[in-house]
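## Example pair
The file below holds two records. Each record gives the amino-acid sequence first, followed by its C-alpha cell line.
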Amino acid sequence: AAFPQACLIASVHRLSLLERFDTVVILEAGRVADCGPRDEVLARHPHLSTQVHARAAPG
C-alpha cells in the first residue's frame, strides 16, 4: 500500500465493497450496531455475509 499508516473511512451501500476493508462498522438507525474485523462481523451477521458473497460473485 502507498500509505501503510493511513486510515480510510468510507460509507458503502454496495456490500461487495466490504471485501476491500479490514474493519467494518454496521450502523442501524444512526447507532453502531456492530464493529470489528470484517470476517468476524460478517460471521455474526450471516444475512450480510450471504449478500456480500452473492454480489461479489461474477456473473
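Second record, same layout:
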Amino acid sequence: MVEFINRTITGLVSVMVIVAVLGSLLRTPRRRDLTWLSLGLVAGVIGQIVLGGLTVLFELRPPFVIGHFVLSMLLVWNAVVLHHRAGHDGGPGLPMVPEGIRRLGTALVVLASLTVLTGTVVTGTGPHGGDEEVARLSFDITSVARIHSTMVWLFLVTAILTLVMLRRRGTAAIVDRDVKVLVITIIVQGAIGYTQYFTGVPTPLVLLHVAGSVVVWMAALTLRLDLTAHSVERIDQRIPVA
C-alpha cells in the first residue's frame, strides 16, 4: 500500500515536472534560467527513481533512505527557486535589506540544511526503518537527538534575531511575513520533535515531523529569496541598505 501511494505521488510529480518544462520552453520570451531549472527537476526525478530502486534493492538501509530524502529536499529547493524566478522578468534585483540581514538570511538556509541533515541521522538511528528487521545506524540515539536539537535551537535563535533586526529597521510587508512564518514553523516543528521524542516516537508524529521539515525548508528558502526585490512595487518598498 505504501509503495503504491509512493508511486502514485511520483507519477503526479512527474506530470507537474513535465508541465514546468513545457511552460519554460513555450514561454515568450524564453528564459534560459527557467529552462535549466525546469530541466533540473527532470534530472532530480530521474535520480529519485534510480535512488528509490537502490533503496529497495539494499533493503531500506539508512544511508540510502537518507540520500533519498536529501535528494527530495534538493528538488524542493529547485522548485521553490523556479517558482520564485518565474514571478519576475529575470533582470538584476536590488537588495530589500542591508547586507548584514542578507547574510543572516543565508545563514538561516545553511542552518535549515544542517537541521534537516541531522534530523535524517536521528531518524536513521531511531526505530522507524520501514521494516522491523532493517539495520539502523549505530549511533547513540540520545547523542544524535541532542545534536539535532542544538541545531534547531541555533536555527530558531538566528530566525528570531533576524526578526528583531528587521523590526528595528523596518522592512517590506512580504519580508516581515516571511520571517514570522519561518519563526512560527520552527517553533511548531520543534514542539512536534520534542513531543515525539518524549512519547516514544509514535509513527503519526514522525510522519508529521518529516512533513514539517519540508515546510520549514521552504519557509527558509522563501525568506532568503524575498530579500532581493525584482518588481517595481517591491523595489519601492525596500529599506535603505547603506
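Notes on the second record: The helical segments are 2-26, 32-57, 62-86, 99-125, 141-169, 173-198, 203-225, 232-237. Residues 90 and 161 are 31 Å apart (CA to CA).
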